[in-house]
Structures are given as C-alpha cells and as structure tokens.
Give the backbone structure.
Amino acid sequence: MAPEDDSAADAALLADLRGVLGDRARDNDFERGLYSRDGSIEGSSPAIVCLPTSAGEVAQIVRICRQHRRPFLARGSGTGLAGGAVPVGRPVVVATSKMDSIVEIDTANRIAWVEPGVLNLDLSRALAPQGFHFAPDPSSQQVCSIGGNIANNSGGPHCLAYGVTTAHIAALEVVLPSGETTVFGGLDAEPPGFDLRGLFVGSEGTMGIATKAAVRLTPNAPAVRTLLLDFDDVSEGSAAVSAIIAAGLVPSALEMMDRRAIEIVEAFAHAGYPTGAAAVLLVELDGLPGGVDAGVGIVREVAQRHHVGHVRVAADDAERALLWKGRKNAFGAVARIKPDYYLHDTVVPRSRLTEVLSKVYRIADAYGLIAVNVFHAGDGNLHPILAFDRREPGVDERVKAAGRDIVAASVEAGGVLSGEHGIGLEKRDYMGMLFSAHDMYTQDVVRETFDPDGLANPLKIIPTGSRCSDSFHQHVPEGAWV
Amino acid sequence: MSAQSSGGSAPPSGGASTGSPDGGASLAANIAAEVTAFAHEVGSSDPVTVVGARTHWDVGGTPLAGTREVRAPAGVWEHEPSEMTVRCGAGTTVAELSAHLARTGQIVPLDPADDAATVGGVLACGFSGHRRLRYGHVRDLVLQTRHVDASGKVVTAGGPTVKNVSGYDLARLLVGSLGTLGLLAEVILRTLPVPAATQWLAGVGDPFAAFGLLYRPSSILWDGMRTWILLEGDPTDVAAEAAKLESAGFGPCDGPPTIPEPGRESRTSSGLRELAGTPGGWIAEVGIGLVHRDEPVQAAPVSSTNAALMAQLKQRLDPQNRLNPGRRTW
C-alpha cells in the first residue's frame, strides 16, 4: 500500500492513468478539493480525480489502481449524505459525470439503459413523452445521479407506494474490483443464479462500479391529487399518518413538516403553507380516478377525526408543483436559520413517530442545536435537520453527538439506522446498534468475495474490527471521522 | 425434475406456534427461543436440508442421499396492521399467513399455486406468483430475514421497518438461493390492503395491446390464443378498465387458467411475441416474460464471471457444502 503523501507513488499512478485518460486524470489542488467532500459533513482529499467517458475506461482505471494497489471509489453528483463518496485512503476518485447518456429507451420491455452519470430528474423528463418515469425521487433529484441512487439504494417521497431503487433496477453492467466487466440481473423474468443485482444495489461502491443500468419504467398515473392538511398538534398529525395507512390506503407520498419547517419553507416558496400550524401533512394520491377520489374522501374523514385545521386540495398541476416545491427545497431553505445543517435519516415504526419526534427535539435542545423536521412520515422515515453554524467552537462534536443519540433513540423504538441515505462513513460505527458481531462478519465475508484486496471504496459500511484483517487502518487520514 | 408435488409430508404447522401476540417481552423471548432451537437443530457439521411443504421439492435438484431434514419454525408471530408488516416463522404455510391477514383486510401477494406451500419455501425458490405485474417480485416483499448459516449461527439481515438501507442486502441474496447459503428461520414481510374489487376477464384479444391500454393491471396471462386479465382496485376503476377491455373483445370470466408446472422459462416481455402460434402446453405472463410449461425447462447459462462469483459466495458462506447439497441455482 502506498503510504500517506507518497508523491513518487502518486506521480507513477497519475502517469499510468494519463496514458488512458489524458488530461481527464487530474491531480491539481482545486479539483482534489472539489472531490474531497460529499453532502455529509466529512471530508478527506483524494490523490487523483478521473473523469472517464466509457465503461472501458472505468475498467482500465480499476486495473491500473490494482497494479498500484491503490483504493478507488466511484462518485456521482456527490449529494450523498452519509459520507459514502468521501475519499478515504488517498484513493483515485472515478467521477461518472461524463458518462451521462440515456443509451436506449425500450418501451416494449418498459426498460431504459442509462449510464451512471444521468441525473435522476433528467431521466424522468426524457421518459415523459412516452408516459413513463423513474419512480425513485430523492429530494436531490434535480442533481443526483442514477449511479448514486444505485449505490445508496435511494428512496424519495414516492417510494412509499413504489418502493426504493432496488425494485426499479432490472440489470447492471458492473466493473468488478478485479477489473473484469460483467452484467448482474437481466431483462428476462427470472435470471438464473443468486441475485447479485440485488446485492450490488445499496453496496455503496464497495463491490465495484456500475457503468450502465437497465432501469424499470413506471407508467405515469392517469390521476393525481395532492392535499395539504394542517394540525395544531404534532401528535394528531402523526396519529393521522397511521390512521390513513390503517384505513387501507397506500398514498403515493405522505410527508410531514413541523412548525419550523413550515415557516422556513413558506418564507422561501410562498406556497401558502399555514405558518403557525404545529404540523402539516402533504398527501399525494395517484392512480385511476375512482380510487384517487375515494382516497381523497378517506383522507378528509381521517383528518377530521384527528382535528385537522384546514384541508387544501391542490386545484391544478401548478398548485401541486408549488406545494412540492416547498417540500423538495426545504433542506436548502434551512440556511435562513443557520448557515450549516446536518441531515439525518432513520426509520421508526409509524406508531412511534410522535414519541421519537419529541425525543429528537429534546436531544437537539440538550446539545444547543436547532432541529427542523421534514420527512417521509408514511414510511416512518425521519429526516431531522440539525441546523448549526460551523464557526461556533466545538459545534461539530455536539452535532455528531446529537446525531448519535437520534440514531440510538430510533433503534430503541424498533427502527433502523438508515431509510435511504446509506451507511457510508457516517453510520458505520453504529452498525452494532442493529446488527450482532456475527451479522456484520457475515456481511463482510460477502463483501470480501467481491473485493478480497479491499480496494473498492474501503472503510465504508462495515466498522473496522469486524474482521481480523483490517488492512486499511493505516490509511485513515488525519481528521476523517471513521 | 418431476411433477410439481412429490407428495409426502404434511405442512409443518406443528412447529409450536406462539399464536397471536400476547405482548412484549414474552413474545420476543418465545420467538428467539424458536429461532435458537431451529439453529441448534441445524447444527454445524452434517449435510442438512430444510423441508417446507414439498410443493417444489425438485427445483434445482434434490438433496444428496443421507442429507438430514429439518423444518423451520412456523406461526404468525406479529402482525401490526397499521405498520403494514407481518413477522412469521419461515415454516408457516401461505394458507395460514393469508388467513391471519384476511382478518384485518390485508394480503402478502406471494401467490403460490398451492397455498400449502410455506413462506420460506416460496422465498427460497424465489418464485413470484401470477400478480407480479402489479405487486413486483416476491423479494421486494421481504423486509427482514433471520437465517441459520452453515456454522449453525443465526444471522439477521435487513430491518423490521418498511424502509431500510442499513448494511448489505443479504435478504435479497437469500431469496431464490434454494437454501444453499443459509436456512430461513424467520421473516418480516410487507403487507398490502386487500383490493376493494377484483375482476378476471378473458378473450382472444391481443395481450400486448391490452397491456398498453391498461394502467397497472394485476396479471395478464396468455396461451398463444386466449388471454386472461386480472383487474384489481377501486370498484369504479375496475369497471371502467373492464369496459375498455370489453370493447376490445374481452368478457368477464371466473378466474385464471390452470398454470402449467414445473417449467419456468425466463424471457423478456417483448420476447414472448415469438411464441405466437407455437404449440400449446404453456401460459405466459405478459409484461413479465415468464413462460410456464408442463415440461421442465433448462435454465439459461450464467456468464463465467458471475458463475465464479456465485461459487465463491457459496464456498465462503458454506465451506463444507452442507446446506442443501445437491441443489444449485445456476
């Protein structure tokens, strides 16, 4: 392994990469800085940044990294929130942003073959004329990439009805850590063998680099209705969430915002959100018109039983878009309170939402932080935002400690570590809250089958110490939170 | 492979079900005790196979002679209707699970042809039912698995909530692995509401055109001549979609045709068109690409790279080849 700051080793590696990529292999400080962080609060510098334009180039990069025994990691748009794309071990970053073509739209099989750098919303826009879309819709969908969605098994508001990314990937072309290229899954009904496709989705780049994906196309619903409900009491709002689901409805989205979130979103989006309400629910129903109308009736009735203030039904697409604009931009709007934020992601049983939410507020108070909650209530997926100012001394430690307490409170309530952001660096040391040592050992055995040398995005997901051989201890950079 | 059911043992309903939740810690302790007892039974040394209802005993080959048979725990252990999740022993029959969920108007659309099949058996085979077009692959109904590995230890994968990306998705690896990587002891599955209305229609209309006409039909079956379509949902929507089909030459019918077994030929959806005019004995799932035949079908080969990875996974997870020896998935 190359020791830290071995400039001769870096130079030799760069020369080989330039042989393949020319000036698309870069080591200037500016670009290494650009690729040193993702959407999390961690950072660490890569040795070299590569911008391949084809699967063949990705395979050559991986083979060169193997020859130099240098870690590599794929990066999409860098919007990941768990530190999965933070370069650890002075690696080569393989940025997929130049691999951004929609190769084929096959409506007969309801599949599109896309490169990993295609942006999520661009794909759905390209499919719209044929009446389809790609169902996973993270809030970052204007900028996040399909490759990133695959790495993190991403979700989004509409995954309540349609399922997360894994349900929407039929096949993957993958460059394995060995440098070989293969295809997992297939367009046929029951590809033979183990489901390596399902294993790869969500593996955060630790099993190789996806260079092409066959994504499933979801037909656009003939009818869509969006409702905004406001409540004087957060617990009534939470109870309404459970009651809507218990009534046999599966809304396409069921989102909740708390008082602070409503205020900042309204100041930004001017969508007519009821400032002063303790909570709002944004409920979307889609499908055929009869079921949608019946669903609207059920939501109204349930909401009234839970003392709803107002029920606003968006009159047209423009009003729907306005309501969603507020929701999807809520995180950026937090800048109105504090310049920095740390966005969390845990899941709890719906019946425990009220209890865990009140714990989140107490935890934030105890650490002198401001908590804002905007989240996927329908599937119990909490997204507490801790707003802070990085310039305050010691604030990073308080933010991390509060984060840990929130994760612990969620797991105690029967929840999990992450609903859709992944484990990355941020939560790898929390894996033991949910899994036994033997569970993690088994996961690591499976990972190691794909990457025996530990070169593919090392030190992510599985905590160090799960195996006897932790060859990357020496590569943890100073200051990286691992 | 021989016929679908090699007959034999009664379904394992005798597995000391804990019945409905009697609250808190004692339930959790009972479940843990059942899973632990199963792990002890599996042990860590000799060849072992898990028996469900034997409805698909020959899939992927039969266990080698002398392989010891065990049964997974059975019983519906926890069902929280408002969470839309259910926890059960892998040895629970689909019939028992369905009956339990029906009380609160819910389903898990595993849909085996014979509901004496066990939940663990359906998942180990990875065979989705005829409503996959609407509800997706059976693997997407699985939230958490607890299995016994080759060393006789219990491994948990996934999580109990409806959404979860905590760690590697070993649960998906197990679905369809025929018990060769681990033996399922317990699962948590996602439930769905029973559709308010259900209607089968049949006719000689073009199934591909019908698929394009409908919004999310539940099933389209085709034998090369005749097409059967299942509509589910709100009554007014089902009536409106049925009216569209009636003007395309379809009419109401009682239900689907008998789906031939044991052959499952895996094609692409568009690849089904080539079957038009070929001799009978098959039913295809339009929109999915699966062709059910009354004769066994040779599985397509896997690439040498994938075969090597799969063999490595098997070797690392079961170095003595003691889990379902004689069976393979590729």
